[in-house]
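User: I've been trying to design a sequence by hand for this structure and keep getting stuck. Would you show me what you'd pick, starting by listing the structure so we're on the same page?

Assistant: Good idea, let's start from the same input. This is the structure you sent:
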């Protein structure tokens, strides 16, 4: 009897069109973009907190631009309201980020792939999640922190920015602290203004992080899983310090190399 062998079929991600329902200013140079996901596409856009979307756009010179942006919203928000939210910071001369910050309007349609990426958290109520992020690196973490806190877990977040005004999602973080109290340990580091303490004022170098840990702000061994997001140098430096201090699981997402 002849046996027909079939090649396993790979499920290639498919481009979809999603409509922008809101564009909101977060800081002078960053916007929050909300996408409406119709009922029939919600299963395709289901995601784990921390994953990202990929956009495709033909630029003014006719060249195709593809860029990734992390999801700032939660799977619960998608299920209950049918929305996905992103935080996009404008990079000088940036093709997609400039377009998103200066031109994008409600009603515009974007070409987008379903959520992808290995930087995600399995949310469990008995866990302590830790995070060290800089600038727009907050985007996946606000999604992870919101889902974790809503589930009853504990979250420690060290968040570095130039000033309070340049801090993306500052108001949402204040709300999370108000709603979840002691379970949300938020520490703002400011590089060009006064941070939460003298130790949290200035650049987040490996030396500074070692001092912060020595001062007892958080014991890396008490955290079940760490999530680091931002520029290469910062992420790698922080990872080394945390691992040397006993951190067991450290996940990283790099926005630039
Ligand atoms: C998995 C993943 C998730 C991401 N999530 C987010 C997010 O949630 N929010 C967000 O704002 N960005 C995020 N980024 C970065 C984003 O994908 C783009 O790289 C960024 O917006 C710049 O794209 P652009 O088209 O505007 O700039 P380009 O036109 O590509 O670049 C313009 C200039 O800026 C430099 N440049 C490119 N990217 C950066 C950068 N990130 N920082 C500094 N200089 C840069 C380039 O070298 C070039 O000189 C993510 C990246 C990855 C890989």
């Amino acid at each position: 009897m002849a046996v027909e062998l079939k090649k396993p079929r790979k499920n290639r991600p498919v481009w979809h069109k999603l409509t922008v329902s809101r564009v909101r200013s977060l800081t002078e140079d960053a916007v929050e973009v909300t996408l409406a996901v119709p009922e029939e596409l919600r299963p395709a856009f289901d995601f784990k907190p921390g994953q990202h979307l990929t956009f495709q756009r033909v630029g003014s010179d006719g060249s195709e631009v593809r860029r990734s942006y992390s999801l700032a919203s939660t799977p619960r928000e998608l299920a209950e309201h049918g929305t996905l939210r992103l935080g996009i910071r404008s990079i000088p001369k940036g093709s997609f980020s400039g377009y998103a910050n200066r031109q994008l309007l409600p009603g515009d349609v974007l070409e987008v792939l379903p959520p992808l990426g290995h930087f995600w958290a399995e949310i469990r109520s008995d866990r302590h999640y830790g995070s060290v992020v800089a600038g727009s690196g907050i985007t996946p973490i606000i999604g992870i922190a919101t889902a974790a806190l809503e589930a009853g877990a504990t979250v420690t977040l060290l968040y570095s920015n130039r000033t309070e005004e340049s801090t993306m999602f500052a108001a949402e973080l204040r709300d999370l602290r108000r709603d979840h109290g002691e379970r949300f340990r938020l520490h703002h580091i400011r590089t060009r203004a006064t941070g939460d303490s003298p130790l949290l004022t200035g650049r987040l170098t490996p030396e500074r992080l070692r001092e912060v840990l020595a001062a007892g702000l958080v014991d890396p061994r008490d955290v079940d899983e760490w999530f680091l997001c931002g520029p290469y140098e910062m992420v790698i430096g922080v990872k080394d310090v945390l691992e040397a201090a006993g951190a067991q699981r450290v996940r990283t997402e790099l926005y630039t190399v």
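That's my pick for every position. To get oriented when you compare it with your attempt: Residues 52, 65, 67-70, 87-89, 91, 93-98, 117, 136, 139, 253, 255-256 surround flavin-adenine dinucleotide (CB under 6 Å). The longest helix spans residues 138-151.
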